[in-house]
Design a protein that fits this description.
The protein has about 325 residues and is mainly alpha-helical. It is built from eleven helices and two strands, in the order ββααααααααααα. α4 crosses α5. It starts with 8 loop residues before the first strand and ends with a helix.
């Protein structure tokens, strides 16, 4: 009887097992890519609908759609339950609520009811994840080789992470949204300069810039559209500009808002001020690109050592090592 051939190994690792795992990962990635391509949607449809709802709210104080009102009532009921639970435990403060609402606006979430959900998540998530990890570590004994210190550190770390999870999620969305707005801000200011020199009003200029940049920079187009709507319906135009500064967590946007308020108040030329700001923002963007390029050699050092050099050594020294091994065996 012929004995079965041994499974090929490389550095003590089963080659067939590794190839099977990599094939499974590749197949999963292909399925995810196909799903992403077939389910792609136009992001402007949802944004235009949200802006139209905001326009209707500014006009009449309520939304025009009956279905939309029903959804808001259901959401308010859920928010009222969470609010009542937090108030009964005396864990809901106005300062926390305002901070959460500001973060939600900066993340692009318009509904203020989610602020209560964020505070409620800080209360519920540590309890849920804490009970689960305590049962997993101490009750089920999932890590039998761990000592008491490691188990305590695991439970404490996951509980703290669960408490910080809503803030981490909001911070991540705020950072991504701010970066997307920062990229398109110089182009938006250039278009505002052109609109101002063409004789358009500030409201019409914001509408025009939002329409032109809505595809390339949807986040910036969303904020400019909302600002244009508020400029048309709010009694105090300064409030509309201040709302823009509060919705975007960027010093550059705050500078633009300050410039717009000063031009509205003192009647200074808007085009020249915006042209100076646009040049400054472009120089700042170029400096950030140069900074990233200067850091690239230091960042590439670790991947070079870990991934490229070992492969290079195997390719160069592998044949010589095989020849030496064959010579010693023979």
């Amino acid at each position: 009887m012929i004995p079965p051939s041994p499974t090929p190994t490389l550095l003590g690792v089963d080659v067939i097992w590794v190839a099977t795992v990599l094939s499974g990962v590749a197949a999963f990635a292909v399925l995810v890519a196909i799903y992403a391509v077939t389910t792609v949607r136009d992001p402007m449809v949802k944004r235009v609908k949200a802006l139209n709802d905001r326009r209707e709210q500014l006009k009449a104080g309520i939304t025009a759609s009956t279905k939309r009102r029903a959804k808001l009532v259901q959401r308010n009921d859920a928010a009222d339950r969470m609010r009542g639970m937090l108030q009964s435990m005396k864990m809901l403060q106005d300062s926390q609520l305002k901070v959460a609402q500001t973060k939600l606006m900066q993340a692009g979430i318009r509904s203020k009811e989610w602020a209560v959900a964020v505070i409620f998540g800080r209360l519920v998530l540590p309890i849920v994840f804490g009970i689960f990890i305590v049962w997993l570590v101490y009750g089920y004994d999932f890590f039998p080789t761990w000592g008491p210190l490691k188990r305590y550190g695991c439970v404490a770390g996951i509980t703290i992470l669960a408490y910080k999870m809503p803030d981490i999620f909001l911070k991540n969305k705020i950072t991504k949204r701010s970066d997307a707005i920062r990229k398109g801000l110089p182009d938006a200011l250039d278009l505002l300069v052109i609109c101002a020199e063409a004789g358009l009003t500030v409201d019409a200029a914001f509408h025009r810039v939002a329409r032109e940049l809505g595809r390339a920079y949807p986040e910036l187009g969303d904020e400019f559209s909302l600002t244009a709507i508020e400029l048309g319906f709010l009694t105090d135009r300064r409030t509309a500009f201040e709302n823009l500064a509060s919705r975007v967590n960027l010093d550059a946007v705050k500078g633009v808002v300050t410039t717009m308020i000063q031009t509205e108040k003192y009647g200074t030329p808007l085009a020249s001020a915006l042209r100076v700001l646009s040049a400054e923002f472009r120089n700042e963007r170029m400096m950030r690109a140069e900074e990233k390029a200067a850091r690239l050699p230091a960042i590439m050092t670790i991947p070079l050592i870990l991934f490229i050099l070992p492969v290079l050594f195997i390719v160069i020294l592998g044949p010589a090592a095989c020849d030496i091994k064959d010579a010693l065996i023979s």
